[in-house]
Amino acid sequence: MLRTSVLRLLGSTGASRLSLLEDFGPRYYSSGSLSAGDDACDARAYFTTPIFYVNAAPHIGHLYSALLADALYRHRRLRGPSTAATRFSTGTDEHGLKIQQAAATAGLAPTELCDRVSEQFQQLFQEAGISCTDFIRTTEARHRVAVQHFWGVLKSRGLLYKGVYEGWYCASDECFLPEAKVTQQPGPSGDSFPVSLESGHPVSWTKEENYIFRLSQFRKPLQRWLRGNPQAITPEPFHHVVLQWLDEELPDLSVSRRSSHLHWGIPVPGDDSQTIYVWLDALVNYLTVIGYPNAEFKSWWPATSHIIGKDILKFHAIYWPAFLLGAGMSPPQRIYVHSHWTVCGQKMSKSLGNVVDPRTCLNRYTVDGFRYFLLRQGVPNWDCDYYDEKVVKLLNSELADALGGLLNRCTAKRINPSETYPAFCTTCFPSEPGLVGPSVRAQAEDYALVSAVATLPKQVAEHYDNFQIYKALEAVSSCVRQTNGFVQRHAPWKLNWESPVDAPWLGTVLHVALECLRVFGTLLQPVTPSLADKLLSRLGVSASERSLGELHFLPRFYGHPCPFEGRRLGPETGLLFPRLDQSRTWLVKAHRT
């Protein structure tokens, strides 16, 4: 028989029971959207990854979270001239029982373990081109100040009280679990032992006096927030899951542990016998980065987008918004949720020996290649599978052959001996489809290509807004295939620059293809920054001409001058993306910490 979790309240007073409906509700939900900071949201954007636990070396799931945030951040910067109004933070979560235990097992002081593994994350992100503006560690002094101040705010508002918590605790997940979330699992000797129903990690019965947060008072405000903001959590299935959780009882939450049991953390202000709960500590990092508790943080909050894995959804979609509402602040603007990566159909696990080392992948497939693979194949709604052959096949097909081949064709000296952006002939390719005449060479499929590429930037932006970067890349890849079809259809290598009949159309075919390549290069910058730079440099596109605001596709077709027409191409840069050897694939396993 599993024992029942019991929460005995000690020292609760009527004065501490706030009217949440009045104090925290109407200001944020009356109009169906966040009213506080709307102007700031329009001008500013702040993207965050989770801060990653340092009990083990980074794997591709960590890199995937960082790449999603990096791509969103880079795409946002492409939209406007002001880079100062956009921020992007990541970092490491370095407190808690898991760290304390992992350090003891390794025979290290907690600080040594944290320094070692945090450095691994920083090195990985630097190698992968993660363009964060801040890398925070929860062991920093600035973070301790922020956490203790936040604690003080919650306490001053009557939301913390001391109580005896008795129930199940999962050290691996760093969380307390209700009875319904615990099950029995058979052990190797035949005896059963209790585990978390969601994660499968062992749990133990715990009884101690802690500080407790009045989470139960926030059930209805959280429901109003989510029902009034259907895009607050994306993709939609995760939004629905959280609302289902809120249909159940929401018990008060223990937010400290005995310091005699957990000493590796931030002490409760004024009570050294208690250590602040690791998740409360960790979540405040999002405020620390933007200057909390100084007033400057208000210009960035709540213009915030959290990018998280589905395993930490409850902490970010229930606990964190409740803490924020309790402190008199708005919930984050968006919570983007992604699923996990499996390897050859199996969950990544040290015991199975199939944990994929991201640094080895970056070396093998190139930085841009592996970035492209994870973001092209990763679908936030469900788990995605990794195996080496899939990486090679995708990168050879879409980057080496389709995109690289298109660039090589259009810049080859045999076809483009002047190495310029040739002129566009409006009589060969009139803006009105269906016209006939001796000079008209454009076909119905060519107009379809122009239409597809003209609408591509808007389509890509919508996919980014919907957290569907894989769909954005799918759309780009589709247009690359269409452009290759256009070039193949008109075979410029069969046309003659010396012929007065061929030359205008030959120049037009190359002009259209180069314009398409310019669009592709611009849109790929958030995902494959080095490859995109190489492509745009080869086309002679300067750094000031690479924003979305400067992306005016095929202006001559629409009756406007083209600044690139007649311009010399940039210097030869070699193969855009060399083909990978399919026969030399292997499972890339992680280095042990």
Explain how this protein is built.
The chain is α/β, with parallel strands linked by helices and 593 residues long. Helix content is 41%, strand content 16%. The chain folds into two domains: 45-338, Rossmann fold, CATH 3.40.50; 391-568, Isoleucyl-tRNA Synthetase, Domain 1. The strands form five sheets. A six-stranded parallel beta sheet has the order 4-3-2-15-16-10, sandwiched between helices. Strands 1, 5, 6, 9 and 11 form a five-stranded antiparallel beta sheet that branches. The longest helix has 24 residues, at 388-411. Mean pLDDT is 88; it is low at 1-41 and 586-593. Belongs to the class-I aminoacyl-tRNA synthetase family. It comes from Gorilla gorilla gorilla. One of its GO terms (cellular component) is mitochondrial matrix.
Chart the SSEs and their pairings.
Elements: E1 6-9, H1 20-23, H2 26-29, H3 38-43, E2 45-53, H4 60-79, E3 86-93, H5 97-106, H6 110-127, E4 134-137, H7 141-156, E5 160-170, E6 175-177, E7 182-186, E8 192-196, E9 204-213, H8 219-228, E10 233-234, H9 236-247, E11 253-254, E12 256-258, E13 267-268, E14 271-276, H10 278-283, H11 285-288, E15 304-309, H12 313-326, E16 334-338, E17 341-343, E18 346-347, H13 358-365, H14 367-377, E19 384-386, H15 388-411, H16 444-465, H17 469-490, H18 502-523, H19 529-538
Parallel strand pairs: 2-3, 2-15, 3-4, 10-16, 15-16, 17-19
Antiparallel strand pairs: 1-5, 5-6, 5-9, 7-8, 9-11, 12-14, 13-14, 17-18
Helix pairs in contact: 5-6, 8-9, 13-14, 14-15, 15-17, 15-18, 16-17, 16-18, 17-18, 18-19
